[in-house]
Amino acid sequence: MSCISDSLRVNAGGVDLRVPVVIASGTWAYEDGMWQDDLARHVGAICSKAITKDPCLGNPGTRVWETPSGILNSIGLQNEGIDSFIDHRLEGLKKRGTPVMLNICMQSDEDLAYMMDRVAEVKDMVDGVELNVSCPNTDHGCMSWGVDARLTAKATEMARAKWDGPLWVKLTPQAPDIPAVARAAELAGASALVASNTWLGMAIDTKRGVPVFARRVAGLSGPAVFPLALRVVWDAAGAVKIPVIGCGGVDSADAALAMIMAGAAAVEVGASLFAGFGVLKDIHEGLEAAVARWGVKNVSELVGKARETR
Ligand SMILES: Cc1cc2nc3c(=O)[nH]c(=O)nc-3n(C[C@H](O)[C@H](O)[C@H](O)COP(=O)(O)O)c2cc1C
Predict the structure, then answer these.
(1) How remote is the CA of residue 270 from the centroid of ligand 1, in Å?
(2) What is the pLDDT of residues 188-210, one digit of tens each?
(3) Is the pTM of this model over 0.90?
(4) pLDDT tens digits, residue range 154-164?
(5) Can you point out the beta strands (E) in 160-310?
(6) I need a labelling partner for 306 at 20 to 30 A (CA). Which of 80, 85, 139, 172 fits?
(7) Does residue 129 contact residue 117 with C-beta atoms inside 8 Å?
């Protein structure tokens, strides 16, 4: 059993992570029963499910579909809205002693202004904001901000104007020019980038001859997207000076290390949790072993290692 050492402690855009492993938004339930102390030691921070201004029922019909080495989801931002989240969820999440990032997803300027005002009111309870300009599972807002550098900058600036704490901007891999979007977010005040959210995908129900999902498209994640996500991390990290957090298909310490060597300061883990929480311990212990193997004091010395020779 590994003990807590500082060899994996990193700072990701103002958030102190005891290990560089973050639970990705939407892949963890809030219920106390989900959280056990022996898991907490393997987790640096936890991202909330996407929070919108008003309560949201989410998408009708099938919401999750397994694919080879992956998962398509079309949850559609189901959540209770920011007011209820702050009143009923935040305290329970905070008492676990692990930093909590609020994944904020807006459909309009007014939504964002309202939510950031509410977050600022409870700033002592919030370790940071993960600005979600990347969810593909809704017809309005969200990913339409993140595919465009100008709109990403606008959303980031608006959030930054109301919030002086850590601000992670979660990119969409669907953006045609990742470096441009990454630079726009950095210039507008992001303290870190998360690269990235899910890829647009589809499934067809061949028995009925119809798309599986009511919105036709859904977001693909899991190990199937890992090489794609690695490329997004590489491109984003090459374009900015702020930390990049790798996200997409991380299912092992080796995958986490590859993200780090491509330029990520930390990783988020989502779909792999559905196969079991043991992945968190495996990544933690595997990264500790990697730090020892490479003869460095802290994992941050391995950030961008693979870039040195290219
Ligand atoms: C069921 C499910 C729900 C998700 N909900 C959200 C969400 O609410 N907000 C968000 O930013 N990302 C959401 N995501 C995307 C993940 O946070 C993550 O960016 C993506 O799945 C890639 O990482 P992974 O391959 O490790 O899962 C969701 C993913 C899944 C599988």
Answers:
(1) 6
(2) 999 999 999 999 999 999 999 99
(3) yes
(4) 999 999 999 99
(5) 167-170, 192-195, 199-202, 204-205, 210-211, 217-221, 244-247, 264-269
(6) 172
(7) no
Atom in ligand 1 nearest the alpha carbon of residue 63: 1
What are the beta bridge partners of residue 267? 21, 246
Q: How far apart are CA 161 and CA 3, in angstroms?
A: 40
The total of other beta-carbon atoms located within 10 Å of residue 163's CB is 22
Ligand 1 within 6 A of CB of 222: yes
Contacts with 84 (C-beta within 8 Å, 6 or more apart), sequence order:
55
pLDDT beyond 60 at 20: yes
pLDDT of residue 310: 54
- In this structure, the strands spanning 64-67 and 15-17 are unpaired
User: Do the beta carbons of residue 57 and residue 137 sit within 8 Å?
Assistant: no
Task: Locate the domains of the chain by residue range.
Answer: 6-56+81-198+222-307
Which atom of ligand 1 is nearest the CA belonging to 130? Answer: 11
42 lines ligand 1 (CB under 6 A): no
Alpha-helical runs (H) found in 95-225: 109-121, 143-146, 149-162, 178-187
**3-class SS at 179?**
helix
Among protein residues, the one whose CA lies closest to atom 18 of ligand 1: 197
Q: Is 135 a catalytic residue?
A: yes
- The pairing of strands 204-205 and 210-211 is antiparallel
Topology of the domain comprising 6-56+81-198+222-307 = TIM Barrel (3.20.20)
**Average pLDDT of the chain to the nearest whole number:** 94
Contact 206, 214 (CB under 8 A): no
DSSP, residue by residue, 3-28: PP-GGG-EEETTEEESSSEEEPTTSS
- ∠ CA 197-244-6 to the nearest 5 degrees? 120
Residues 6+ apart with CB under 8 A from 164: none
Asked if residue 184 has pLDDT above 70, the reply is yes
